[in-house]
User: Fold this.
Amino acid sequence: MVQTKWVVRDKSKKSVYWPSQEMKERAFVGSDKIYKDAAKNPKAFWANLAKDGLSWDRPWKTVYESKPPYFKWFVGGQLNVSYNCLDRHLEQRGDQDPISNKVAIIWEPEPESERARKITYMGLYRKVCKFSNVLKKIGVRKGDRVGIYMPMIPEALIAMLACTRLGAIHSVVFSAFSGINFKKRVDDCEAKVLVTCDGYWRRGKQINLKKQADIAANAKSVKKVVVVQRFEGKNEFKLKMKKGRDLWYHELMEKASEDSKPVPVESNTPLFLLYTSGTTGKPKGIIHDTGGYLTQAYWTTLFNFDLHEDDVFWCTADIGWITGHTYSCYGPLSVGATMVIYEGSPDVPDWGRLWKIADKFDVSVFYTAPTAIRMFKKMGKKWPKHFDLSTLRILGTVGEPIDLETWNWYFDYIGNKRCPLIDTWWQTETGGTLVNALPGIGPFIPTVAGRPFPGTVADILDDRGKPVKKGETGYLVFRPPFPPGLLRGVWKNPKKYKDTYWSEYGIKTYYTSDGAKWYDKHNIRVTGRVDDVMKVAGHRLSSAEVEDAITSHFHVIVSAVVPKPDEIRGQVPVAFIVLKLGVKPSPEVEASIVKQVRKEIGPTATPHQIFFVKDLPKTRSGKIMRRFLRSMLVNKKLGDASTLQNPEIVDYLKKVVGYKRK
Ligand code: PRX
Assistant:
């Protein structure tokens, strides 16, 4: 069978690709005129998108309002997110319609012995209505916070949507984070109710999540904990339910009514909080609003992934991250798409699992992280070869810069040289993608993210705030009007909001903390973080967060954690630790520190390597110079040591690390 080619090669630049005629014709946007038109009046552009894409209960009075560093979109407009993701589709996709019961979620459990679940829009609507009534019954009201701590199971999405139906604010926490870490977030947002589950499958093992959730359930604010039975009572561990506090999801759902009216909220009302790592040890609760966020989620999903009625979309991100929120929940559901979610690990039972799933469900648009592709590349092309991936039409990546070899491997062996590969740059803070090529427009250039999304204004500035010239590296920023999905604050911490995003270049320029350069007049290459934030297997982790966890160990005086490049994971954390007087470094001490990190944060933060040292490089004011350690690990030039309080430490550290100047 001849397969449709969705891309063609550039005639002169062999590594650059463009959409084929078929792709252009099929795509929602096939002409770059959209960029010019949007730039003429970005506010009107977004206003039209918000009107066309979403259903509003009340129209807005003002499109955009700005009081730097704050801004608002669609002021006075009212809408409900669950209505936009569910109810309105039923008119087209419900019982009465020929495409009634379109599948919303295809859930693949990790054990192959279990059957996949398919939930239609109608089925999902019913469950969300019921669960919103459950939440209401246990006291959740508009504006209340609900902590959600669940793996990739449909109930995680049901819980999120049920919150939005009531106008409650959810805070989803990655299920591989420890209970202590979850509690920190629950304490910060004062969640009234937690929704969790007994556990989940990970690499063939049952993980007891409830045990971790119990740590957070001890938070002062928590009144009730709803527990989903993922294992349907067949768990291999003993489960403890606290009387009066812990309630079974299935029991509550059995009694709940399906009659639920969505509560409309003003567009700028917080929709959810998502905690993310910054440069301090304390994670920040990023606030996303309702109308602006959903507008960006809706249109980036449609334009980037070009989802038509017959498409099956699979974004592999976990629901605990922003990618999971926007592209495994709100984006695809608001456009009425069918999507796949998978509970487990990509190597169970072997490295062919993802391709087997893609084949089984005829996935047409596939979105994942470079770290995953690097792993697949290492495992070899024989795995995807076993499966029929001919339904694939568009590939995407997110989370970190993608190197040339990985890009090519993904393009060649997964896309079979036929599919546009879009490298999407964005952040937890931006809510949706902001820099990438569009599949019907292109170009698709390895290692280049692409163009700022229509209607957004990006720039790359030097240290003094001047735009850089082509080829020079600077800092990626956004100018007003700010993308509608951009964060609206940091929970209970306006100072942090201002200091982190609106201080570098003043209160009218959003600072991303990413380095970037112009590849050409329109396209941007993102080089990565310029602050003390690492991307470990695509997960965002701050040096300070890991250091805090290490320093809380009773044997430790001080520590510094820096990233080291890693072939598969992108970066890995390396720790330099000063032990208390009299404590000797030993494998036991090391193991106990690692245990502490896993307990405080979770396995993603496990140091790849630990150096026990007598001191750390410090400035005269006592600040640890992580920069020195970072350079040492990659044998790079170290810079001037004379500004250090303890310059003699440099030679000592060089020996410890085995530094060899390149
Ligand atoms: O450094 C950038 C990198 O990931 C950071 C944001 O991480 P997080 O908030 O966890 O969100 C990840 C998913 C949206 C950015 O500051 N990053 C993300 N996408 C890319 C990227 N770096 C280069 N290229 C990308 N496509």
Observations:
- The mean pLDDT is 95.
- The chain is about 30% helix and 25% strand.
